[in-house]
Design goal:
Blueprint (H helix, E strand, L loop, with lengths): L5 H9 L5 H6 L2 E3 L7 E2 L5 E11 L11 H17 L4 E11 L5 H17 L3 E9 L5 E11 L13 E5 L5 H9 L11 H8 L5 H9 L5 E4 L4 H12 L2 E5 L7 H10 L3 H7 L6 E6 L3 H11 L4 E7 L4 E5 L5 E3 L12
Parallel strand pairs: 4-5, 9-12
Antiparallel strand pairs: 1-2, 3-6, 4-6, 7-10, 7-11, 8-10, 9-11, 12-13
Helix pairs in contact: 1-4, 3-4, 3-7, 5-6, 5-10
Length: 338
């Protein structure tokens, strides 16, 4: 039996994944199957657009990710960018460059991951592109979100005297990746929570919406490249200094235990590991009590981890002994040398 051609493959990977009623409710007037999608634009909103590319051997490897995980994470990382503006993810375009090793069934698993994430976050997949690739899989996802006009939360809103917060623990993804990567020395298997944090991140959409709707979020960023790197982005965009307190950083007990087993300082994973996709932001200090109560009621973690000060833009870490040290502007960098 001959293998399906390009268009038949696309149809088999995408057809009937989302109901016509869901697509219509999402504003989709014309979805997959034509030259472009047609989407209605509600009044009083602004569009948020985010795109990310994942390349095999750079962003993921078969040792660390199942095929469906790659699709799930590729979409989730974009949804996280929408969450970091206080927005609502709405539509996605998915483009894949497929090498010979990724046969029909592997690609079906990849799309299973895409659509599992899309269903969880009510995202309508409205199109994309498919090409061949010589050796490694390339996945590029564009997500469109909506936000009330003029209300998107940016990195530039931090002011001296704000509190600094995160909406979940950090370092879990890095710890999971550490344990799954091939190594010349034996490593203990990571706890399942760390593995899942790396493979199936959970964008903080609900937290972002709360911060926007209540007017609490003054600046916001998602932790994709590492807590220190994201803090630097807020500091530079806002022209303030962020002081993070080591004793207040949310260290998971499972991460602490696993780091001890690996003889690694978990602080390095927490500050520089990245791909946690929690939100880092600043808020007025007088809002802290209300934020804590509402987040508790909603079942969303909230950790106050520092404060902002006047001064040259930068990031410092206050150690448990009360000493301050500058944090390097370091995180994941595609073009870093060495």
């Amino acid at each position: 039996m001959p293998l399906p051609d390009e268009f038949e493959r696309i149809r088999l990977w995408t057809e009937s994944r989302q109901t016509a009623d869901f697509l219509l409710a999402s504003g989709v007037r014309l979805g997959i199957g034509d030259d472009t999608a047609v989407v209605g634009a509600p009044a009083g909103i602004e569009w948020l657009l985010a795109v990310d590319t994942m390349v095999e051997q750079i962003h993921f490897r078969s040792e660390t990710m199942e095929d469906a995980d790659v699709g799930y994470k590729a979409l989730a990382s974009n949804i996280s960018d929408i969450a970091a503006m206080g927005g609502i993810p709405a539509h996605a375009l998915i483009s894949v460059s497929v090498p010979p090793a990724w046969d029909f069934n592997r690609m079906k698993s990849l799309y299973d991951g895409f659509y599992e994430c899309a269903e969880r976050y009510s995202v309508a997949v409205v199109g994309g592109d498919t090409t061949a690739a010589p050796s490694d899989l390339v996945v590029a996802v564009t997500v469109f979100g909506t936000v009330e006009a003029g209300r998107a939360i940016t990195r530039a809103g931090a002011r001296a005297g704000h509190i600094v917060f995160v909406t979940g623990p950090v370092g879990l993804s890095a710890g999971g990746l550490h344990g799954m990567l091939p190594s010349d020395t034996a490593r203990p298997k990571p706890p399942e929570r760390l593995i899942r944090a790396h493979r199936r991140p959970a964008p903080s959409v609900k937290a972002g919406r709360l911060l926007l709707e209540r007017g609490w979020g003054k600046s916001l960023n998602d932790v994709s490249d590492g807590l220190a790197s994201e803090a630097w982005e807020i500091a530079e965009a806002s022209g303030v200094r962020l002081v993070l307190k080591e004793a207040s950083l949310p260290l998971s007990g499972e991460l602490a235990s696993y780091a001890a087993d690996c003889r690694v300082d978990p602080l390095d994973w927490m500050l520089y590991g990245g791909e946690d996709y929690v939100l880092l932001g600043t808020a007025n200090g007088e809002d802290e009590a209300a934020m804590r109560e509402v987040f508790r009621q909603e079942g969303i973690p909230l950790f106050v981890i520092g404060e902002t000060e006047e001064g040259p833009p930068g990031v410092e870490l206050e150690t448990e002994r009360g000493l301050r040290k500058p944090l390097a502007k370091r995180g994941y960098n595609h073009f870093a040398k060495g």
